[in-house]
């Protein structure tokens, strides 16, 4: 749920009980996390048991779009789901094992997804998903045909109930008793970067790498 001022509304499921200082209520913080990652985990009840499925996603201002096969059990439920997105920014190595941690950005989205049946919205959602993972690829590759669309399930999960939590900075024990131990402590940053494209060996040798793919070589994965 969202307030009129652009802040995420607090609900029983999104109100942090612990480490409240790491929470963010700005709706912009939610989109920052969604932009930085491209794999989410869909938690759903299937046949009375819990299933957590990793999958790519796309999004706009109102919905998170998830896709898969129409035969996938995780995409046929009409129950509420929980989707999580996490970006790991590094390790926090403290003076004591108890104070070790991770610097991260994360979001949790709750709600009841809607099975997208409208053909126009289905293409719209699949385009968002494709462009989020590989910007420029929707216009480069062949679009889905009627048979492929029929075999693809697309869920639209409202971005109405969500929470955002992050951690950054050094260990928390710099001013505690363990500081006297004289042990090294600090952060070990983690930065994922796209590497040089590897051409499919089935292509003719002279086939150039598309500009939108080549441009990502060496860039940070959490920045598109």
Automatic annotation (TrEMBL):
Residues 214-224 have a biased composition (Basic and acidic residues). Residues 198-224 are annotated as: Disordered. It comes from the Bacteria. Coiled coil: none annotated. This is Pyridoxamine 5'-phosphate oxidase family protein. It holds the Pfam family Pyridox_ox_2. It comes from Micromonospora aurantiaca. InterPro entries: Pyridox_Oxase-rel, Split_barrel_FMN-bd.
């Amino acid at each position: 749920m969202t307030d009129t001022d652009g802040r995420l509304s607090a609900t029983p499921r999104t109100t942090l009980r612990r480490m409240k200082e790491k929470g963010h209520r700005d709706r912009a913080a939610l989109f920052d996390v969604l932009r930085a990652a491209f794999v989410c985990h869909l938690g759903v009840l299937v046949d009375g048991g819990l299933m957590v499925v990793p999958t790519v996603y796309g999004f706009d201002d109102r919905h998170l779009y998830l896709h898969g096969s129409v035969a996938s059990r995780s995409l046929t439920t009409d129950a509420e789901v929980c989707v999580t997105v996490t970006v790991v920014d590094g390790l926090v190595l403290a003076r004591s094992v108890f104070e070790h941690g991770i610097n991260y950005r994360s979001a949790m989205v709750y709600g009841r997804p809607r099975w997208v049946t409208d053909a126009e919205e289905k293409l719209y959602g699949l385009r968002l998903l494709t462009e989020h993972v590989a910007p420029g690829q929707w216009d480069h590759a062949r679009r889905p045909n009627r048979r492929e669309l029929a075999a693809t399930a697309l869920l639209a999960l409202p971005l109405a109930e969500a929470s955002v939590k992050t951690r950054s900075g050094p260990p928390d024990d710099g001013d505690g008793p363990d500081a006297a131990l004289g042990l090294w402590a600090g952060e070990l940053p983690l930065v994922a970067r796209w590497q040089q494209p590897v051409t499919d060996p089935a292509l003719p040798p002279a086939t150039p790498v598309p500009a939108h793919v080549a441009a990502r070589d060496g860039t940070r994965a959490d920045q598109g």
